[in-house]
Write a structure and sequence with these properties.
Layout: H1 3-11, H2 15-46, H3 50-71
Helix pairs in contact: 2-3
């Protein structure tokens, strides 16, 4: 490998950094929507609108499962290869 190619590989972040950032962004988005749905369910339950409260609670549950499913796709920490 040439010196230019090696220095270029060391200068640019690994693709797993971009993947990890995207997954963390989606997790934050899913948790935010889940909390929003939980507050909506609580508000509707207090107003005795139980049909809509059950619907928003189930929506919150869907986003909770989506968040747990997304956690398994977080990449391992980036490890430097020790050569020589």
């Amino acid at each position: 490998m040439s010196d230019f190619r090696q220095s270029q590989n060391e200068a640019h972040p690994n693709k797993t950094n971009t993947l990890m950032t995207g997954i963390i962004f989606l997790l934050i988005l899913f948790v935010t929507i889940q909390i929003w749905f939980l507050f909506g369910a609580l508000n509707n339950a207090l107003q005795e609108n139980l049909n809509f409260a059950i619907t928003t609670a189930l929506g919150s549950l869907v986003f909770a499962f989506a968040s747990f499913w997304l956690l398994k796709y977080l990449p391992e920490p980036i490890k430097r290869k020790m050569k020589k």
